[in-house]
Design a protein that fits this description.
This protein is α+β, with helices and mostly antiparallel strands. Helices cover 74% and strands 13% of the residues. The chain has a domain at 3-94: S16 Ribosomal Protein, Chain: A, CATH 3.30.1320.
């Protein structure tokens, strides 16, 4: 039967990790496998690879065919390069010591590259975190400045309102004094203006009684003039009445006298 070196998926959705297994090519991807030789976790940077190089090389020598992803992992860990060196040893191009030296030199260089990459990634992450913290601090400082400016503005408005409230009673207290002073200042002027305004009326009132006595004085005179003609006939009647009476008396006296006389 043909065997394959491939990845078997595990983990949850969005965060998978894989087992590196040797399985029958007819088996399902996540089905039964012959042997597990390592694991692969792509969720970290750099990816975490655990691999038994000797077992992987043994299965490659037995004819197991790696999948594309498994071949990349084996090449990354130096298994494919070691297989190439061992082929040269079998052909007589290299001795085992030379092949081992070359493999160890390549492995140390690869390990150093991985270490440098890991350090660079960590430094990049740290610098990014530092920049994020600085940006956050700048935002916080800007926000604090805005809050302080707003609070100072509110404090200024409150102080202005308090000053206005304290000045209002003083202004109200000064207003009656000013009103009293203005009233006292205007009172003499009004009093001075009042006599001048009342002078014609006073004169009219002063003249009015003077006219009334005249009218009253004229009324008795008119009444006297009117009564005089009325009294004159009475006086005349009275004057005439005694005159008539003596005549009557004279007539009577004549009548009383004896006709013989």
């Amino acid at each position: 039967m043909s065997t394959k070196i491939r990845l078997q998926r595990h983990g949850k959705k969005g965060s998978p990790y894989f087992h590196i297994v040797v399985a029958d090519s007819r088996a399902k991807r996540d089905g039964k496998y012959i042997e597990r030789i390592g694991s692969y976790n792509p969720n970290v940077n750099p990816a975490l690879i655990e691999l038994d190089n000797d077992k992987a090389l043994d299965w490659l020598d037995k004819g197991a065919q790696p999948s594309d992803t498994a071949r990349a992992i084996l090449s990354y860990r130096g298994v494919m390069y070691r297989k190439h060196l061992m082929r040269g040893v079998r052909k007589g191009a290299l001795t085992e010591e030379q092949a081992q030296e070359k493999y160890e030199a390549w492995l140390s260089e690869k390990t150093q590259k991985i270490a440098d990459k890991t350090t660079k990634i960590q430094s990049d992450v740290q610098s990014a975190r530092t920049k994020a913290l600085e940006a956050e601090s700048a935002v916080k400082e800007e926000r604090a400045k805005k809050i302080m400016a707003k609070q100072s503005a509110l404090a200024g408005e409150a102080a202005a309102a308090e000053e206005g409230a304290t000045d209002a009673p003083t202004a109200e207290g000064d207003a009656p004094a000013e009103a009293t002073a203005e009233a006292s200042a205007d009172a003499p002027a009004e009093q001075a203006e009042a006599p001048s305004a009342e002078t014609p009326a006073a004169q009219a009132e002063a003249d009015k009684p003077a006219e009334e006595p005249k009218a009253e004085a004229e009324k008795p005179a008119e009444q006297a003039t009117e009564e005089k003609p009325a009294e004159a006939p009475t006086a005349q009647a009275e004057a005439e009445k005694p005159a008539e009476e003596p005549k009557a008396e004279e007539g009577g006296s004549d009548e009383g006298k004896p006709k013989d006389a």
